[in-house]
From TrEMBL, chains A, B:
One of its GO terms (biological process) is amino acid biosynthetic process. Residues 82-195 form the 3-dehydroquinate synthase N-terminal domain. Coiled coil: none annotated. It comes from Chitinophaga niastensis. Residues 197-326 form the 3-dehydroquinate synthase C-terminal domain. NCBIfam families: PRK06203.1. Gene3D superfamilies: 3.40.50.1970, Dehydroquinate synthase-like - alpha domain (1.20.1090.10). It holds the Pfam family DHQ_synthase. Its cofactor is NAD(+). The lineage of its organism: Bacteria, Pseudomonadati, Bacteroidota, Chitinophagia, Chitinophagales. This is 3-dehydroquinate synthase. The keyword Amino-acid biosynthesis applies.
Length: 384, 384
C-alpha cells in the first residue's frame, strides 16, 4: 500500500487594540491599521455590519462610521452600512445569516477585503460565521461593544450560530484580522449586560489567576456601580488571559476534550437554552460557576471559605447564583443536569468538566456524581 | 492605546493511502487507521455518506461497508448509511447540505467522531463542508471514487458548495483526517469522467514537472483507452504534486493572490457555469489549459512546438480544446472572457493568472490582453 503524508502549519496572528471613540476623525487607531494593509495595485473593500441595539444609543454612529471609513486610503466602503437587530435572536435566524452572505456577494467583498462587525457577542458570532463561509473565508474585523465581547468572545477565535435550538451548532474557528475595543460603547449598556459581562473575568481568574480574583473581590461593588477605569482594567486583564490560553495553550482550535475556559459553562449553555435566552450568557455562567465551585467544595477540592468568597463576588456583582431549573422537577431529573450528556456530545469524547483545586487553579474531571451535584444545587439555593 | 498581539500556529497533518478493495474484510488499511484513533474511555462514531452514482455500479457496497465498519474496535457505525445522488447537482442544493448537518446532529457525530464521504469530488466537497460547519468542525475522511477526486480535489484542503449560481461561493479550508484512494472504483467510471480526471495531471505537470508531462505524452493514448496501471501511476504522481504544493508552497489556505494550481481554471469555472455543468470540470479545464497555453505562446513565452505538444496531449486524451462560448457572441464579448473580473473577485485582490514559461514551469501575470486572448481562441478552434 502506497502512502503520502501531508503535514503543514498555518500561522494565525491578530492584534487586539484598546481605544476610545474609534470613529472620531482624530483617532487613527483603526484607519492606521487599515492603511497598513492597503496595496498599491488595487482597492480593498469594506462592509460594515452594525448592531441595532448599539445604534439605538449612538444614533450618529452610522454617519460617523461612513465619514471615517470613506477617507481611509486604499479602501472603498460599501454603499450601505447594514444594521441588524442585536442580541441572541440574530443567532437563531438562518435567513439573516444568508442575507449577510448575499451582502458579501453583492458588494464584492473578496478575500482581500474586510467585513467589519460592530456589536455584541451575538452579532459578532453571526458576522464572523458569515464571513468564514463566504469565498472560503473573507477577513473580518471585530469591534465588540459589550463587556462580554470585549473581554472574551470578541478576542477569541470562534464564531457560530444556533441551529434547531442547539446553541452554536453551526460555526467555525476563524480568527479575526484585528479587534478594536472601544470603551465608550460600554457607557450605554443595559445594567444586566454590564454586570453579566464581568462573569467571564471571574471565570478566568478562578481557573488561572488568583491575584486577579482578589482584585475583583475588592472592586466588585464599585465595578457593579459603573466604575469605568476599573472596568477597563478588568476587560484588559480578562482579554489577555483568554488570549494567552488560546495562543499558548497548545490547542487553539480545540481538537482535544480539554476546555478549561468553559469552567461553569456546561450548565450555563443549557440554562440559556431552557430559558429561551431570557437569562443572559453571563448570568447563566454566574449560576454555572456557583454550582461548579460548590461542587468542588463538596468534593473537598476547595475549602468552605474559598467557596464563600466566590459566591460573595458573584452576589456583589448582583448576579444570580441559582436557578429553579437546577432542581428536580416534579420528581423528574433537572433538565439542566440531563443536559450534561448533550454537553459531552457537543465537545465530543469523554465528559470533561473543569472544577477548582484552588482559587486560581482549574482542574478537570471526567465524572460527575449526580447526588453530590444536587447537593450543590441546594447549597447555591440557600446561599442566595 | 493599549494593544495585545495574538500569534499561534496550528498544525495540520493527514495521510493519503492508495489501496484497492478497501471494504474487503482482508484489507485492513482503513480499519487499522481507525483503530489507531480509538480511545479506551469512549466510543467514537462513524457516519457514512455515499455517492448514488457509485452505488449504481457497486450495488453490494452499502452492505460491504456496513459489515466492514461494524467490526472496527472502538467505533460505532450510525444505523443508517446515507446515499445521495452524486455529481455537481449536489453542490447546488442547500436543503441537502442541511439534511447532512441534521444527520450529523441526529447520529451524535461529535468532534471526536468521523464523517466518511465516499464518492466523486462533488459529493466530497459537499460532505466536507457539512462536516466543517457542524460543531465548529467534525473530522471527515474522504474516499474519492473518481480520477479527479483521487488525484486532486480529494487530497487537498478545500471544500464548498455553489450558491446562487456562483461556483464554490460557500466553503471552507478544512483538511481531512485521512484520504483513502481505491483504484477499483475507477473501473466503473463513465469514459468522460475517466478522461476528464486526467486533465489535472496535465495541468500540474505543465506548471511543475516536465518529466511527468513527457511521461503522459507517451501514455496518453493507452491511458485514455483504460490502462489501469498507468492510471494508478498518474494519480499517485498528480496527488503527490498537489500535496507538495499545498504543504510546501507556504500558503496552504490561500491567503495571497497566487494560485498556480488554478492554471487553466479561470475560464474553466465560467464555462462549467455557463453550460449548466454539462461540461465536466476536467473538460472545461482542458479547454482552459489549451487557451492559456496558446496565449502563453502568443506572448512569446513558449514556442510553437511546446504549444502543439500540449494541444496534442489533450486531443490524445479525447478532450475538448475549444468551446463556442469563448468567441464573441453576435458582436458582444465572450461571456467566458467577461468572467475574468468575476474570477478576480472570487480570488480577491489583483487579477492573477498562471501562464507557462516552459513546459514544467508556470508563471503569473496580472494583466490579460483581450485582443491576444481572442486570437488564442481562434488558434484553439483551428487546432481541434
Ligand atoms: N465566540 C465565542 O467564543 C463566544 C464566547 C462567549 C460568548 N459568546 C456568545 O456571545 C453572545 C452574547 O454576547 P453579549 O453578551 O455581548 O450580548 P449580545 O450580543 O446578545 O447583546 C446583548 C444586547 O446588548 C445590545 N448592545 C450591544 N452593545 C451595546 C451597547 N454598547 N450599548 C447598548 N446596547 C448594546 C445588543 O443589541 C443586545 O440587545 C452569546 O451568543 C454567546 O454564546 C461567544
Ligand atoms: N475541493 C477541491 O479542491 C476541488 C478541486 C477540483 C475540483 N473540485 C470539484 O470536484 C467536482 C467534480 O468532481 P468529479 O470530477 O469527481 O465528479 P463528480 O463528483 O461530479 O461525479 C461525476 C459523476 O460520476 C459518478 N461517480 C462517482 N464515482 C463513480 C464511480 N466510481 N463509478 C461510476 N460513477 C461514479 C457520480 O455519481 C457523478 O454522477 C466539481 O464540483 C469541482 O468543483 C474540487
Ligand atoms: Zn462564556
Ligand atoms: Zn480543477
Amino acid at each position: 500500500m502506497e502512502y503520502i503524508q501531508q503535514n503543514f502549519n498555518v500561522n494565525f496572528s491578530y492584534g487586539v487594540f484598546f481605544s476610545s471613540n474609534l470613529f472620531d476623525p482624530a483617532n487613527t487607531c483603526l484607519s492606521s491599521f487599515l492603511e497598513s494593509k492597503a496595496e498599491p495595485a488595487f482597492q480593498k473593500k469594506l462592509l460594515v455590519i452594525l448592531d441595532g441595539g448599539v445604534v439605538a444609543h449612538h444614533t450618529n454612529l452610522p454617519q460617523q462610521i461612513t465619514s471615517y471609513l470613506q477617507t481611509v486610503r486604499g479602501f472603498q466602503l460599501a454603499p450601505e452600512i447594514i444594521t441588524i437587530s442585536g442580541g441572541e435572536s440574530v443567532k437563531n435566524d438562518l435567513p439573516l445569516l444568508f442575507s449577510l452572505v448575499d451582502a458579501i456577494d453583492k458588494y464584492g467583498i473578496d478575500r482581500h477585503s474586510y467585513v467589519i462587525g460592530i456589536g455584541g457577542g451575538s452579532l459578532l458570532d453571526l458576522v464572523g460565521f458569515a464571513a468564514a463561509v463566504s469565498h472560503r473565508g473573507v477577513k473580518h474585523i471585530r469591534i465588540p461593544t459589550t463587556v462580554l465581547s470585549q473581554n472574551d468572545s470578541g478576542v477569541g477565535v470562534k464564531n457560530g450560530v444556533n441551529y434547531k435550538g442547539k446553541k452554536n451548532f453551526l460555526g467555525s474557528f476563524a480568527p479575526p484580522a484585528a479587534v478594536f475595543n472601544d470603551a465608550v460603547f460600554l457607557t450605554t449598556l443595559d445594567t444586566r449586560d454590564w454586570r453579566s459581562g464581568m462573569v467571564e473575568a471571574v471565570k478566568v481568574a478562578l481557573i488561572k489567576d488568583a491575584p486577579f480574583f482578589t482584585w475583583m473581590e475588592e472592586k466588585a461593588v464599585t465595578l457593579t456601580a459603573g466604575d469605568m477605569p476599573a472596568m477597563k482594567e478588568l476587560i484588559y486583564r480578562c482579554a489577555a488571559l483568554h488570549m494567552q490560553h488560546i495562543g499558548g495553550g497548545g490547542d487553539p482550535f480545540e481538537s482535544g476534550s480539554s476546555r478549561p475556559l468553559d469552567f461553569g459553562h456546561w450548565s450555563a449553555h443549557k440554562l440559556e437554552q431552557l430559558t429561551n435566552f431570557e437569562l443572559r450568557h453571563g448570568e447563566a455562567v454566574s449560576i454555572g460557576i456557583a454550582l461548579d465551585s460548590v461542587y468542588s467544595f463538596l468534593l473537598g477540592w476547595i475549602d468552605e471559605s474559598a467557596m464563600q468568597r466566590i459566591l460573595t463576588v458573584l452576589k456583589n456583582m448582583q448576579l444570580p447564583i441559582w436557578h429553579p431549573l437546577l432542581e428536580m422537577q416534579d420528581g423528574k431529573p433537572s433538565p439542566v443536569i440531563v443536559g450534561l450528556e448533550e454537553f459531552r456530545e457537543h465537545l465530543g469524547g469523554q465528559l470533561t468538566i473543569s472544577l477548582l483545586r484552588a482559587i486560581g487553579k482549574g482542574e478537570e474531571v471526567h465524572h460527575i456524581d449526580l447526588d453530590l451535584l444536587y447537593k450543590a444545587v441546594t447549597i447555591c439555593k440557600n446561599n442566595q
